[in-house]
Amino acid sequence: MWFPAPRTLTPRLLSRLPDRHRQPRRTPWADANRGGAMLDSFLEGPCFDAAGNLLVVDIPFGRVFRVGPREWEVVAEYEGWPNGLAAGPAGSLHLADHRHGLLSLDAATGSIAPLLETVGGEGFRGLNDVVAGPEGQVLFTDQGQTGLQDPTGRVWRLWPDGRADCLIRNAPSPNGLALDRAAAHAYVAMTRSCEVWRFALRPDGVVGKAQCFLRLPGGLMGPDGLAMDARDRLCVANPGHGLVWVVDGFGVPAFVVDCTGFGRLPTNLCLAPDGTTLLVTESQSGSVLAVELPPG
């Protein structure tokens, strides 16, 4: 690396998907994304609802869980591939679904409604992640099966009045999303090029000088979920290596969270309400991990 070795942090187990929710079987999602493996779950999208409850999604089985220390409650179960979750208006949640587009989830009742299924009559490639921006904006990635062979993934922004801006349209597998705390810049994980891009958010939808903010070591999988901590440090899930990187505002690695004691698939991230406890969905073991991020 060009920088000093980051300090290694070891996560702890917060909660594991109970066995009663695990029924290993082959699914169309696993056929397309996991080589047809027999899966009992694939967790992503950790997010806190308005009541302070932690929710996660289970992509291949169309489930959204409310996570407890031992018991997990099924909030919603439907015919879809839910991937990303973010806080929405009036206590609702935005749900990025690979098959159905952008949805709205009522965590109290489990009801799901379409929010944006097409733009200009054209469907999406397959949504992945979603994040809430300022003034009611919603940013989401449209990943599909794009990659280095087809760098046409997109990053969208939806305004409260229904306008949709295509901010990026040449992305090699756009995945996780995060905004800095001022909501001035967006960060996007480009899984297949092993990069995180950074660009300024402008109200006119014009994007200029998008920058490669971070480049990760190559391997079987590049960066997945992103999260920004209370000190504007970017946390980057790297399932290809079983790690989570924590980098400062200049892109210099400060910490690396080694998740390999639980599995090699840390897929997505969120910060707990305290702003310093990082939660990680580890999808190989079907668990949620937690680690406290030091101040410096």
From TrEMBL:
Record organism: Teichococcus rhizosphaerae
Full protein name: Gluconolaconase
Domain annotation SMP-30/Gluconolactonase/LRE-like region: ranges: 44-282
Family matches, as Pfam families: SGL (PF08450)
Top-level taxon of origin: Bacteria
